[in-house]
Amino acid sequence: MTYKYSKPTLFQAFVPIIFLIIALFINVRIFGDASLDGSNQIILMLSAAVASLVAFRLGFNWREIRSGIVKSISSAMSSIIILLLIGSLAGTWLLSGIVPAMIYYGLMILNPTIFLFAACVVCAIVAVATGSSWTTAATVGIALVGIGTALGLNPGMVAGAIISGSYFGDKMSPLSDTTNLAPAMVGTDLFTHIRYMAYTTVPSISISLVLFLILGFMYGGDAQVMDTDKILAAIDGAFNINGWLFIVPVIVVFLIIKKIPAIPSILSGALLGGLFALIFQPDVVHVVSGYEQHSWESSYVGVMMAMYGDISIVTGNAIVDDLLSSSGMYGMLGTVWLIISAMIFGGVMEASGMLKRIAEAVITLVNSTGSLIASTVGTCVFFNVTASDQYLAIVVPGRMYTDTYKEKGLAPENLSRTLEDSGTVTSVLVPWNTCGAYHANVLGVSTFAYFPFAFFNLISPFMTIFYAYAGIKIRSLAEAKGKESTEDDFDNP
């Protein structure tokens, strides 16, 4: 049977969005940070119900709406699996002493005054090497939060530095999925995209690093009064700390550099963490298991509990005890719930054509290069908020604006750069976006807490808009074709 649908009006398309914004505002005002514990998920589900009612009005039936929901959730399934495995990795890396070792040596090396600056740089290097902000946050990021907390720094500042460095490295890495996706959507090549993106990305990270240095000098001095010797002694007393433990993170980074998919790489890291726990921390594994005597069963139970459930290492030092705890896969279930709820809402909005209708309305407002790029930025941010997925925030605007950029005589790398400067980096600033939910859970810092300090992510969209209106590094289509012709002549004399 063929169904005829009515095209949604702009008002109809905005009805679910308006409901979502008002409901989330009320919800966050009442629940605060606790809104992510479940109430925001309910709001997203109710917003999906409102969108479904509008879709019914347009002529869609439940089967078609359900198909859109299933498709949307399916697109996030890889992220959900990674999230669960990261929970296991965090648990076994705690049990094995890997994370405690990172914290231990980090406290010995890093000065509180330059800690935020150093954290951003370290995460940028790791993310460039791995091509993944998610992996960076889940490995060195977790350790850096622990170190920063032990130094007495604001966790929001620390998480902001980690996220800023991770997303800079992710954007500039040829191994990154979004860095490959953006040029593929608009018809330019990877390295042209990276070179052109550097014009806006390098100034953004430079400003961010200066701001982290300023924050370090403002607040790092107060952090130095903490007695780190007691923290080091507590960690050293609870774990067998040694350099061999770093073999596991090195292997995980190596696997990712070799382009082994994220899921098997992270699973390997979690299993190796369990193996190293049995080798280097048998007493810790035994205590976690709750068994009275050492046995193969207690070893099995201890490692398994670290992978799926709550574990905590008691040292007698309150600060260290707060750091040495993990919830395994179980701790990620709330985030999985949030992602699924968000994808249900995004699925209804996309399947019914309401997201497309809003995007089309934005294009009609374009009358200059500056307004075109600003509209692209706004559209990407809009999709991050409504579709709750950074890939949709790149793919859909990429499809929408490709022809418009060509009509305006702009080279495709202008669009691919803008997609990354807005679609990739702002995803982590939205609490119910897959990226925002992931990083808040993995780092143990709410999105609202790190939002003001994720300087790179906040600056990047404004930097690309500034370049557009100022006419800086806006490459024309004729210039791009001329350069290609010159390169072809050089290659084929």
Structural commentary:
This protein has 493 residues and is mostly helical. The chain has two domains: 30-76 and 335-481, no CATH class; 78-332, no CATH class. The protein is 76% helix and 1% strand. The protein contains 25 helices and two strands. It has helices at 10-31, 39-58, 62-75, 77-95, 98-109, 115-130, 133-150, 155-172, 177-186, 190-223, 228-238, 247-257, 262-280, 282-289, 296-308, 318-323, 333-351, 354-363, 369-386, 390-407, 412-424, 434-443, 447-450, 455-470, 477-491; strands at 311-312, 325-326. The radius of gyration is 24 Å and the shape is globular.
Main beta sheet strand tally, sense and closure: 2 strands, antiparallel
Tally of separate helices: 25
Q: How many beta-strand elements?
A: 2
Element pattern in H and E = HHHHHHHHHHHHHHHEHEHHHHHHHHH
Q: Specify the helix fraction band.
A: over 70%
Beta content: under 5%
Please write out the topology:
Layout: H1 10-31, H2 39-58, H3 62-75, H4 77-95, H5 98-109, H6 115-130, H7 133-150, H8 155-172, H9 177-186, H10 190-223, H11 228-238, H12 247-257, H13 262-280, H14 282-289, H15 296-308, E1 311-312, H16 318-323, E2 325-326, H17 333-351, H18 354-363, H19 369-386, H20 390-407, H21 412-424, H22 434-443, H23 447-450, H24 455-470, H25 477-491
Antiparallel strand pairs: 1-2
